[in-house]
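To close the section, here is one more complete example, presented without commentary so you can practise reading it yourself. The ligand is adenosine monophosphate.
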Amino acid sequence: MTLFTDFGLAQPILKALSAEGYEKPTPIQAQTIPYAMEGRDVCGIAQTGTGKTAAFALPILHRLSETPKPRKHKSARVLVLSPTRELASQIADSFKAYGRNLRLTTEVVFGGVTISRQEKALMNGVDVLVATPGRLIDLVDRRALSLRDIEILVLDEADQMLDLGFIHALKRIVTLLPKERQSLFFSATMPKTISTLAESFLRNPAHVAVTPVATTAERVEQSVIFVQTGRKQVLLETLLRDPSIDRVLVFTRTKHGADKVVRGLDKAGIVGAAIHGNKSQPQRERALAGFRDGTCRVLVATDIAARGIDVEGVSHVINYDLPNVPESYVHRIGRTARAGATGLAISFCNDEEKAYLKDIEKLTRLKVPVMPLPEGLPAAPAASESSDPRREQSGRNGQQQRGRPAPHARGHQGHGQARSADPNADRGPKRRRGRGGKPAGNGQPQGGQPAGNQQRPAQAQRPAQGQRPAQGQRPAQAKPAGQRSEGRRGDGAQVAWLEKSPRRR
Ligand code: AMP
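Output:
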């Protein structure tokens, strides 16, 4: 296994990495850093969320720290080009975080804000400049910046650059750069247009690639159930009656939430264990051992605790709470699709989590099929009753996927490689949009809102679905995977519940 210490990175950088809580390099880091440290150009296929920022930032910081130079008026040693201002800011934050023990300066410039402050910031020169292409050219044209002294160029998210129409700006920028430089080029995809662009930037590059996070998502059968917080526990217990769910990882956002779920399962006579940061090492080991040997079918985990879990044969992942970091969703569901296996992931989504679901679908570029609530689902306990069953039953935009088979059973051929690291784990309750964001170590501590606190008090209580016997109703007990269990919902719509899923949307 590769470790950060294997790369020969300067001590202050390694120190910053431990402060960030990074234990081992992600696959893109393990592949890229050695080439970049040798001074080679790199052409990488990697998506956001794979840890690619550190893959280029760490060797760059190392090189700057090993070859200190006085800063030059209106110039920079490193130029990182980013398509959007959000990404540019996040990259700059990463450079600052990883370089916190070095005496280097990082500036970020992008359009849409007054240029004079940026001109001033560049006056004395900077070590690392992160820029969007348009504003960079404006600064060059105003003679506030020269690109003559750039030693290392990074072009990040090249495919987005082209999508956003930056091709001409990029072509102009490349003419302003010294020929003698190191270039690192990253793109989530590498169609012909991008590889042609890469050729114009790179010299004899090393090629690196990691499976896009989306690929993990593509090989896991997924579904989402819209459910109010107060009914999540009873929904979980109902799902767990399905014997085909033989080894299930349940994810909660908080440690408190994980304990609460396990207590609920215990009351329902279902053996489960929680694993999270507040558990002692022996407790964690016991829980994992039971999960591995099958004596404990249900392991309830927080993101950070799940990092170290590598158990084969996880049949299902259930997101009791949806993560606020979309990449975490992909890492979570990847637990059920290890080493080419296929897996099934079911997410519970309350009203507040619908925004997270949108972010997830944007990242994975997949619509998560909606599964109806199981018919006959008991109502929430009185204390946590908050649901409006009619609202729960409607899918995104109020659209229920009628009759759509639930993506429950196996039978989908996997491909590709799951990521081995989980850099987004345990980032705390703050919602993070898109990529980057605060590095893991800076995230808010876990243990924010207990899951049960998210519910709103019910305005006008209606009987929950389970209290209104529907025609032809059957017990909530699920059928083994592959068996069709068609029921009639309260509103008369035919639904297929927990049946074999032939395809995704
Ligand atoms: P990126 O793909 O660069 O946007 O990185 C995604 C997230 O992973 C960032 O928030 C980083 O803080 C985090 N990260 C990057 N590398 C590691 C690592 N080796 N271990 C843990 N977290 C990491």
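Once you have examined the tokens, check your reading against these statements. The domain at 4-209 is CATH 3.40.50.300 (Rossmann fold). The first strand starts at residue 42 and ends at 45.
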